[in-house]
């Protein structure tokens, strides 16, 4: 995955590992460093949601096609329409929820770090924006509309 979410994900995984190592070392040394666990959690949330959008864009997400491949011909097309429509509707619901949570998170802070809790919710917001763009493009493909704007919108 040669995109910005992939690079951010790789840096995030290394960062999480380093933060956890610092937590272990400081705990064993009897030193308490405030906010390290929250920082690891925030980094993990960002990695997960950035990678969700990136993997969906490249169609490298987990798919279980066992039953879909065995559908009779006319039902296959209906299934595709229903699946793409449901994905798009669900993304809009989650996108709205993430936006609402981000805006509400501006009024409180993460313990130990002092940053707004909106930092937690901004990751799902960005991830669902990317996922909504991908699903809208896939739905547009079903309608016969070119999907080049989807790839351009999430490119480096």
How would you summarize this macromolecular structure in one to three sentences?
The chain has helices at about 5-30, 35-55, 75-105, 120-140, 150-155. With about 160 residues, it is mainly α. The protein has one domain (about 5-155).
Q: Rough shape?
A: elongated
Instruction: Quote the distance from N terminus to C terminus.
Output: 11 Å
The H-and-E topology, N to C, reads as: HHHHH
Biggest sheet details: none
Quote the beta fraction. under 5%
Query: What is the helix tally?
Result: 5
Q: What is the count of structural domains?
A: 1
Looking at the chains present, what oligomeric state does this protein adopt? single chain
Could you explain the architecture of this structure?
The chain has 156 residues and is an all-alpha fold. The protein has one domain. The chain is built from 5 helices and no strands. Helix 1 runs antiparallel to helix 2, helix 2 packs parallel to helix 4 and helix 3 runs antiparallel to helix 4. The longest helix has 32 residues. The mean pLDDT is 79.
List the helices and strands and how they pair.
Blueprint: H1 4-28, H2 36-57, H3 73-104, H4 118-142, H5 148-153
Helix pairs in contact: 1-2, 2-4, 3-4
């Amino acid at each position: 995955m040669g995109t910005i979410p992939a690079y951010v994900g790789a840096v995030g995984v290394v960062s999480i590992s380093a933060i956890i190592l610092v937590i272990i070392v400081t705990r064993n040394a009897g030193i308490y460093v405030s906010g390290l666990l929250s920082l690891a959690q925030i980094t993990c949330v960002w990695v997960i949601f950035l990678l969700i959008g990136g993997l969906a864009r490249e169609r490298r997400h987990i798919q279980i096609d066992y039953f879909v491949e065995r559908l009779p011909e006319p039902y296959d097309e209906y299934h595709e329409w229903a699946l793409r429509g449901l994905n798009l509707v669900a993304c809009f619901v989650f996108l709205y929820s993430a936006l609402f949570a981000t805006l509400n998170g501006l009024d409180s802070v993460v313990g130990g770090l002092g940053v707004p809790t909106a930092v937690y919710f901004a990751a799902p917001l960005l991830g669902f924006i990317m996922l909504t763009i991908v699903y809208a493009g896939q739905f547009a493909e079903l309608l016969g509309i070119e999907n080049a704007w989807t790839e351009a919108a999430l490119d480096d």
